[in-house]
Amino acid sequence: MGANGLWLWAVAATLLLLGGGGSGGVSGVEAGRVLSIFYFSGRSHFLVIETLLKELAKRGHQVDVVSHFPQKKPLPNYRDFSLAGSYPSMVNHWTFEQLQNFHFLKLMTWMWEENVEICRKVMEHPVMKQLAESREKYDVVLVEILGSDCTYGYAYKVGAPVIGITTLVGLPWGQDRVGNPDNPAYVPGALLPFTSQMSLWERTLNTLGQLYAVWGEKLRGRRLNDLLLREHLGADMPSLSELIERNTSLVMVNSHFSLNGARPAVPGYVEVGGMNVDPNPGPLPEPFRSFLDGAGAAGAVLVSFGSLVPGEKLPPKQLQAFLKVLGALPQRVVWRVNASRVPGGLPRNVIGSTWIPQQALLSHPNMRAFVTHGGLGGTHEAVHWGVPTVTIPFFSDQHQNGFLMQQHGAGRVLQFDDITEDSLRQALHAVLNDPSYRESAKRLSEQFRDRPQEPLETAVWWTEYVMRHRGAPHLRSAAVGLSWVQLWLLDVGAVLAAILAMLATILWATVSTFTNCLFSKAKDRASKTNKAKRK
Ligand SMILES: *[C@@H]1O[C@H](CO)[C@@H](O)[C@H](O)[C@H]1NC(C)=O
Ligand SMILES: *[C@@H]1O[C@H](CO)[C@@H](O)[C@H](O)[C@H]1NC(C)=O
Predict the structure, then answer these.
(1) Contact 56/27 with Cβ under 8 angstroms?
(2) How are the residues of the chain apportioned to helix, strand and coil, as percentages rounded to the nearest 5?
(3) Which family does it belong to (predicted)?
(4) Which of 66, 227, 464, 531 could be 29's S-S partner, Cβ–Cβ 3.0 to 4.6 Å?
């Protein structure tokens, strides 16, 4: 090989090195090692996080994923540790009546008790046993903040800082681990049916609900988790509260101020709402494309209650109302329903499908309205694409999501028990024919999308930030180290009360000495004059 050949090799090698450096990420983080552990078997939750994990892998980080949802095709840099089969999927797990009666208190008990049981099943899985003994080094551990924090035990075992992600909006017990203020006067509890505009009665309920959630999690949930962690990971495990307080660097939440209302947040509390919205959902597959393209000026309506409640699961009365009202619309309708299980079949303007390309459907210019159960993913997609909603909420955060759309004038809420032919027709007609809903949805969409950075980019940036700094406790406020007595200023109140009491005592003593003095002088004088008079 001549001098020329060598020179060419040198250029090629430099280019390769540069190329390799480029894939390390915009922010210049070298390839990091990410461990993510998701005990919960809800698919819609995992979908939110999967977006981030795939993006991290794409940027050259080594991503190890413990979850119930392994990739169908292997991805570069993405290694699955599958828990599939260790706990039944949440789809078809609940009956319709159970969903209906899943009110706040039941939901909390489910969070603290049932989630520990899911953890127990998961922790018995060989993958988790292996992980507990693993000697692999990680730069950061990503976990979901939901009902149980059992995953923190494994973060402790591998000795890495933790990023918590809530696939819902910020949960009450996801705040104090980064020292975030969570004032129930104007911040609605994540799982309560309120928005930032609350009446006195609603604020009372919101405050009680938040207190119940925060203290229930501390006193019930964490205790059960402590027992479980010590049973599986060793009797010398520190308490969960200690792990959470020592090692949480960041909390990412699936909200955005444009939709949820502005709230105070420390730097370690980052909003990434909309992260799972795909801005380029691609062309619509057939038969949906021809169906929507041909919908004409009247447009189309999408009806979907997510994977938990497919249309055919509706009780007969509500199902009949839907068939009548949808069938009489001038719009074309796409419905997530198994048509062969609808007695009498579907009306002629409706196509039913058990699978729907929801994002591509919502992004279609002919889409006029979305009838939804108000899941967070679907709500964000509707907001992103500016489609007004009729929300029929079942449980969890769905009520709040519906009320938020209603508060912004971009949707209507219809309670399930109130569904009749009339109420459903009215709600749909309002959203379809009153232009204010469409205008508000468009305005909300613009505010939701106008950001310095795409939400996924934000999530990646902060994950890399925590890796770069090997944990970032400086993103949290000093509230993390305070007890609730200090945080609620009860100690300061006590000091102030003591000072006030002291001042009052001094004042009282001075005044009484002074008046005594005056009084006795006056008495003296009086007795002298009396004596003089007698003489
Ligand atoms: C917390 O994270 C640091 C790395 O930032 C690690 O050295 C330490 O062991 C972790 N401690 C706990 C209790 O997880
Ligand atoms: C739809 O329902 C029919 C009849 O019960 C059933 O055979 C079919 O498997 C269902 N399709 C799907 C995709 O669930």
Answers:
(1) no
(2) 50, 10, 35
(3) Belongs to the UDP-glycosyltransferase family.
(4) 464
> For 444-487, how does the pLDDT look when each residue is reduced to its tens digit (9 = 90+)?
999 999 999 999 999 999 999 999 999 999 999 999 999 999 99
Ligand 2 atom nearest residue 355's Cα:
13
> What architecture does CATH give domain 24-277+454-484?
3-Layer(aba) Sandwich (3.40)
Q: What is the pTM of this model?
A: 0.87
Closest to 230 in 3D by CA, of 87, 113, 120, 67: 120
Asked if residue 151 has its Cβ within 6 Å of ligand 1, the reply is no
**Residue 64 CA to chain centroid, in angstroms?**
23
d(CA 218, CA 112): 9
Q: pLDDT per residue over 155-176, tens digit each?
A: 999 999 999 999 988 899 999 9
Q: Please give the structure tokens belonging to residue 326.
A: 């949808």
Query: Taking the CA of residue 415 as centre, how many other CA atoms within 13 Å lie in the half-sphere pointing to its CB?
Result: 5
Average pLDDT, the chain: 90
Domain regions of the chain by residue span: 24-277+454-484, 288-446
Token pair of 415 as six digits: 């309670």
| Shortest-distance atom of ligand 1 to CA 156 | 14
24-277+454-484 and 288-446 have identical folds: yes
Atom of ligand 1 nearest to the CA of 159: 9
- Output the CA–CA distances (angstroms, integers) from residue 75 to 96, 457, 478, in the order listed: 37, 20, 40
User: Which single residue is written with the structure tokens 């127990």?
Assistant: 120
Q: How far is the CA of 340 from the centre of ligand 2 (A)?
A: 7
| E-only strand ranges, 194-317 | 248-253, 269-271, 300-304
